[in-house]
Amino acid sequence: MANVKRVERPLSPHLQIYRIQVTSVSSILTRITGNALIVGVVLAVWWLLAAATSPDYFAVANAVATSWFGDLVFAGSAWAVWYHYLAGLRHLYYDAGHGLDVPTAEKLGWACIIGSVVLTALTILIV
Q1: What whole-number distance in Å separates Cα of residue 64 and Cα of residue 122?
Q2: What's the pLDDT at 4?
Q3: Distance between CA 44 and CA 121 in Å, rounded?
Q4: How far is CA 68 from CA 62, 73, 89, in A?
């Protein structure tokens, strides 16, 4: 048998030297916002079911939905919807074969993040 010489290689970049990239942040945010939307949907469905059940039960659900917690969940859900929408448009652009170079991908990642915050603020101000 041949004598195999093992080369000691690092496993991966350590967190202290790894530079966070916008493209990885936008990918992580897409997954987080998709799952976080479930919380807003559950709260809205609970509110609707409580409205169909009884006035007393609706009063409890309405108190939660209109509290600071409900406002936070629904504002976060609005941001998540806008972010998911913009990220979906970005992926359609990628699927067409455009924007796959690193500078353009970073600009599109920032556009999704900043655009979703601006659109959420406009949505909250208008509604």
Answers
A1: 24
A2: 75
A3: 20
A4: 12, 9, 32
Q: Residue 127 — pLDDT band, cuts 50, 70, 90? A: confident
Binned at pLDDT 50, 70 and 90, residue 8 comes out as confident
Task: Look up residue 102 and give its two tokens.
Answer: 């690193």
> pLDDT tens-digit profile of 84-122?
999 999 999 999 999 999 999 999 999 999 999 999 999
Contact 84, 37 (CB under 8 A): yes
Which helix (DSSP H) or strand (DSSP E) does residue 99 occupy? none
CATH no. for 22-126: 1.20.1300.10
Rounded distance between C-alpha atoms, residue 46 and residue 63, angstroms = 12
pTM of the model as a whole:
0.82
- For the chain, the domains span 22-126
C-alpha closest to that of 109 among 21, 14, 2: 21
Locate 79 and state its tokens: 């941001």
Residue carrying structure tokens 């998540």: 80
**Cα 115 from Cα 119, distance rounded (Å):** 6
